[in-house]
Amino acid sequence: MAVYAIGDVQGCKDELDTLLDRLQFDASRDRLWFVGDLVNRGPRSLDTLRFVKSLGEAAITVLGNHDLHLLALTRGGASWRDGDEGLRPIVDAPDADELLDWLQTRPLLHHDARLGISLLHAGLPPQWNLQTAATCAGEVQRRLLGEKAGQLYERMYGNEPDIWRDDLDGWDRIRFTVNAFTRLRVCDAETGRMALKFKGAPATAPRGMQPWFRIPWRKSAGERLVFGHWSAMGYVNEDHVLGLDTGCVWGGSLTGQRIDMPDAQPVRVASHTGGLPLDD
Length: 280
Description:
By secondary structure, the chain is of the alpha/beta class. It has a single domain, classed as 4-Layer Sandwich (Purple Acid Phosphatase, chain A, domain 2). It is 30% helix and 15% strand. α3 packs across α7. The longest helix has 16 residues, at 130-145.
């Protein structure tokens, strides 16, 4: 059995099909790990969602910010915005409720004890070790599966609080957790404060800010982590951290990599879309 991690698809189903052919993926024996953001800007979000769901236990995906935004649009009363039109076919599909029910049960964090690898969409604040991350992710998932899911979609938007405290509670704790797992790129190197509005390349980060995985004192150091979300940064493989968002929907590529073999190399498929203006 091979285990492959796949970067942000964002509805680029044609590129995903080509990538899986190149990886020689076989759903009867292999497994796929998706870093989240299955949907939104690309031309085939509905097909992507149906395909990944159809894989059953052969696929694991965590929630990304665009996946949560889809749920907020459909189940939390969020406003439609520029760039959301790719989600309309999902909303209008006859199996929309089934697809959204499935998406809503996806976690923010997946940990495989056998492989010693954890999957997430964006990042971990430096104050969190893996146990704290798992605890916080579980708190959000229980909200998603409970009666307060609609309230979560209404309250998850916003940039505050932007720094972790052990005594954070209520919706502040939930919002911080959602932002960390689905939006984080850089933190203040001294305090760990998250700069959630930053979307550029690491070299253009505000003074004193560093990528979350390069903070020297982060408590998750040494953990093997796979993530996406940061298309302006591109592929990363350093210090047990693997970043796979290579900006397919923005005209870059879709990247996959076998993660159960330490020396495996990334496999990339060039974008067919021609590229969109760079965003998150």
